[in-house]
Amino acid sequence: MLLLLPPSEGKTAPKRGRPVDLDALSFPELAPVRRRVMAALRELSLGDEAVALETLGLGPRNAAELARNADLERQPAGIAARIYSGVLFDRLDLIGLPTGAKRKAGRRILITSALWGVVGPNDRIPVYRCPAGARLPGLPTATELWRDPLRAALPDDQLVVDLRSSAYRALWTPANAPVVTIDVVREQAGRRTVVSHMAKATRGDIARALLIDEGGSGRDPRTVDGVAERVARAGWTVELGNPDRNGSVSLTVVERTG
Length: 258
Prior knowledge:
It contains ten helices and ten strands.
């Protein structure tokens, strides 16, 4: 089982540490593309400030992030499990996982990124700003740039639980392995609405439950039904959609209120 996570906009900068070593990251064959993105991000960040801020979805108060982007090769790096600090990662709490679950996370989790392609929780990276929708100078879209390199590098032979937003799902989805996408809705008085921001918190909780499996066998689920059973055992109401030809399916988590 692979757990696919999005990056977080919120990141925690390490106070010290060696710079990133692209050849030491997971899937080092992606290093040439990573270097291209870093170079384009540097070019953008050193150019017109207003253009760079708009491209990266930043406000004037975030201009310091441009200086960091322009110097990524020399910025201190820390493990991705500590760098990413948004809502999903706060709830998943990779650092606070029990020892066995933490080892499993290192093997099972891939964090998709428009800059790195994918990284694992223990890969050392600097803080950066590079959303999936940003058009960097001289490069195609992140989806076009990463689709073939990720398809060649990543495994395509095991069940995938996809906890990413649509922008990051577009970068890579296995062609042959079954995929369980996690969607979250809120139901009140029989009416359902899509949960947006706080869905990240639920996805973080689900990822943690899949790694720990309190009260269960602790073995990874190997089927779509196994994932649904694990999530339901952790306390959520779940609904499975109809599978496609690869056996992929949407799992909807229903949060009932009122």
